[in-house]
Design brief:
This protein is 32% helix and 26% strand. It is an alpha/beta fold. The protein folds into 2 domains: 129 residues, Rossmann fold (3-Layer(aba) Sandwich), CATH 3.40.50; 250 residues, Dihydrodipicolinate Reductase, domain 2 (2-Layer Sandwich), CATH 3.30.360. Helix 1 crosses helix 9 and helix 8 packs across helix 10.
């Protein structure tokens, strides 16, 4: 009989939906010992929470997240609320002996993230931060290629994360829907919301980022607040670009904006090394592009008449995660990245090997985000503390 993983999820927004779907589908695709049970959904908007519970099959509704911590029928607290609440909930959940998962960015800043790390490590509870793009099969395949030594010495890493949904000056800030535009709730703009993804992926593939030099801009300086109705200063970054030096000596460029007209969720990276290169585009997630200059098996250069980029369709059963899904040539979607992440988390519990990124790993991403913000403010290079 399967062991129950009894879930209390906090937050009825977009991320809550992706996580709820993963809990519902886990055992359909992954052969794990645990079976998620959706015990409680928590949101301050009770009517919304009740509709949510009916849609997704949660057994009960709570309006105060603290009630989940004392509940004996809940094992895992899943945090899908605005960034300002991550630290308080995660620390309290760990102290109550609950497993903890949280959406990214991990916290408002590195100081909060450090407190979260101390709490989960002192309590000894499983924990994970939901950087779901690691679980795109093509990105996981890129990690495999790097680990196999097929890139060789890395020289350059470049990443773009572009959207366009805040271009209009009529878009308000704050409230349930637009809290990402309110620094008091989000902590930062594109740095924490978008670049955090790019930074996590970059360090997973290419190692720690040691130093950064950043420039940020807020194009619309004032917006009406969705709650107060008052026109208030905008204090988040609408766009940010930064240079990076990795601990391995390679160089990086990162750019993110919500003002790239026509871009909805354009997320790309390229890694260039002595022996090969990789390129990924989230708008074509089923593909990974790979350029091989030197064949790892023979050590010889690729024949000049065969030199060129390969566009690998990552749908074969030997590709990461794909043996759990369909036949070769058929694709999986965005929602499956959360399902893959949950499977890794559950397997980590069962095997005693913590899934990544856990809170300690994600702390370094938060430190880089802090360094980027500090660098943009001071117009100078800032160390991240990594070596």
């Amino acid at each position: 009989m399967a062991k129950e993983l009894r879930v209390g999820l906090i937050g009825c927004g977009f991320m809550g939906r992706t996580h709820s779907n993963a809990y519902r589908r886990l055992n359909n695709f992954f052969d794990v010992e645990h079976r998620p049970v959706l015990k409680a959904i928590c949101d301050t908007n009770e009517p919304k929470a009740r509709q949510y519970a009916q849609t997704w099959g949660y057994e009960r509704v709570e309006t105060d997240w603290r009630n989940l911590l004392t509940a004996k029928d809940i094992d895992l607290i899943d945090i899908c609320v605005p960034n300002v609440a991550h630290a308080e909930i995660a620390i309290a959940a760990a102290q109550a002996g609950k497993m903890v998962c949280t959406e990214k960015p991990m916290a408002m800043n590195a100081a909060q993230a450090e407190e979260m790390v101390r709490a989960v490590e002192m309590a000894g509870v499983p924990n994970m931060v939901s950087f779901n793009y690691r679980r795109v099969p093509s990105i996981s395949l890129a990690k495999q290629i790097v680990d196999e030594g097929r890139i060789g010495r890395p020289f350059h890493y470049r990443a773009l994360y572009l959207q366009d949904w805040t271009i209009s000056a009529d878009v308000p800030q704050g409230g349930d829907a637009l809290w990402r535009l309110d620094a008091r709730v989000s902590g930062s703009g594109v740095t924490g919301d978008l670049l955090a993804h790019s930074i996590d992926t970059a360090m997973w593939l290419n190692g720690p980022i040691a130093r950064v030099m950043a420039k940020a801009e807020t194009f619309v300086k004032e917006r009406k607040h969705a709650v107060s109705g008052q026109v208030e200063p905008v204090t988040i970054d609408d766009a940010c670009m930064f240079l990076a030096v990795f601990a391995n000596g390679s160089m990086g460029t990162f750019e993110s904006t919500r003002y790239a007209r026509g871009r909805k969720n354009f997320n790309t990276f390229e890694l260039n090394g002595a022996d090969g290169s990789l390129y990924f585009d989230l708008e074509e997630p089923e593909y990974l592009q790979f350029f091989e200059y030197k064949q790892k098996e023979t050590g010889k250069k690729t024949a000049s008449h065969l030199t060129g980029w390969r566009k690998i369709h990552t749908t074969n059963s030997e590709h990461p995660y794909m043996s759990h899904y369909w036949v070769p040539g058929t694709c999986i979607g965005y929602e499956h990245t959360f399902l893959n992440a949950l499977a890794d988390f559950v397997e980590g519990i069962e095997k005693g090997t913590p899934a990544q990124p856990n809170f300690r790993t994600a702390l370094q991403t938060q430190r880089v985000c802090d360094a980027v913000i500090a660098s943009a403010r001071r117009s100078e290079w800032v160390d991240t503390g990594a070596e």
